[in-house]
Amino acid sequence: xxxxxxxxxxxxxxxxxxxxxxxxxxxxxxxxxxxxxxxxxxxxxxxxxxxxxxxxxxxxxxxxxxxxxxxxxxxxxxxxxxxxxxxxxxxxxxxxxxxxxxxxxxxxxxxxxxxxxxxxxxxxxxxxxxxxxxxxxxxxxxxxxxxxxxxxxxxxxxxxxxxxxxxxxxxxxxxxxxxxxxxxxxxxxxxxxxxxxxxxxxxxxxxxxxxxxxxxxxxxxxxxxxxxxxxxxxxxxxxxxxxxxxxxxxxxxxxxxxxxxxxxxxxxxxxxxxxxxxxxxxxxxxxxxxxxxxxxxxxxxxxxxxxxxxxxxxxxxxxxxxxxxxxxxxxxxxxxxxxxxxxxxxxxxxxxxxxxxxxxxxxxxxxxxxxxxxxxxxxxxxxxxxxxxxxxxxxxxxxxxxxxxxxxxxxxxxxxxxxxxxxxxxxxx
Length: 429
Ligand SMILES: Cc1ncc(COP(=O)(O)O)c(C=O)c1O
Known about the structure:
The protein is an alpha/beta fold. The protein contains 15 helices and 14 strands. The protein has helices at residues 11-14, 20-25, 48-66, 76-88, 105-115, 130-137, 155-165, 191-204, 259-273, 278-289, 293-318, 344-353, 384-403, 410-422, 424-428, and strands at residues 34-35, 98-101, 121-126, 142-149, 152-153, 174-177, 207-211, 236-241, 253-256, 324-325, 333-337, 356-357, 359-360, 374-378. It has an eight-stranded mixed sheet with strand order 2-9-8-7-6-3-4-5, sandwiched between helices. A hairpin with a 7-residue loop joins strand 10 (324-325) and strand 11 (333-337). It starts with 10 loop residues before the first helix and ends with a helix. 45% of the residues are buried. The mean pLDDT is 93. Pyridoxal-5'-phosphate is lined by residues 39, 103-105, 129, 178, 183, 211, 213, 241, 243, 248, 253. Residues 39, 103-105, 129, 178, 183, 211, 213, 241, 243, 248, 253 line the site of pyridoxal-5'-phosphate.
């Protein structure tokens, strides 16, 4: 007899929905599918042999300690190594400000536990990192969305919004910022906006969660100082990870925070998982101490920068007029804006039939009405020829969509006719 077990779910759990991206990842298995959907690093970059050698070495030397439970805050040697790297990036921090976590995703969960009561407001960009939205939704947060442009979060809109929100009984508690090559849109926040955000945090008394998994993956332009480096009041909780610069399977990330905040995060982590995987932490530390990490980052930059160029060239070659996309300086993603009448969910259904996948924009917005005409493309995981082939397929689906919807947009029809007359469209579809 069917038994509906869902009645046992908590009120919190009833509001949880499956991540569209996680569901889509299953499609990576379909034969011939070219996936721009995931956010996966390329396994070609994983230094598997070196990690194996390091694991052998440290287990031989220190096995009994490595296989024991560790300290919740993290292995002292890794906390020190991370603090040193953070100091080189302009943050005035010591090892006591560093918490090692089970992937930086855990910081989303821990900050939810420590700061968020039901109906508390978190300000996010629109679009933003999907799993931050779902992670804080567990704690029944509400979200205020600020649109982005090529300079990341629109600071003019943010400031105006804060003026209004500050008058509420329950003004925003946290702002979630992804300053470098934001997931999903690939856009970067200028230095001026980073300073401004810290000033506003002080004026309006909010905390900033600075999520920086991609900061090291810069392919052009100069490195910009972190938001945390402007923070004199301990308002910024910075987070980053070894997932994109070493291997995500290690599940080792870190948070940098004021000691008072860190102490609370540690208590929350204790009840979550006791400690981060000690073997993974020691491998990451040894990787830094032996001097492998910077050459590794350089190697990854080279590979991904090439892949990004292939994707940007492919977009120019295969996408018709009326489609816009971001030109990131680093990271792993491109963000695509379709004509206002074209639905990216509908486009995905058709693209999947041509064996090419992406993530629809909707997934990255707190407001489910937003993002219907946008989509995210990942360029780090597919092989170089598959990027070009995938874009050829996607371009032909988009072109087909335009051709079969002549009457939907007079402007685009006119442009399309001009293209067709020039012979471009026929060549592309
Ligand atoms: C913006 C952002 N934050 C956090 C994470 C979590 O990374 P991890 O838990 O592997 O450190 C990711 C992973 O893709 C991400 O894109």
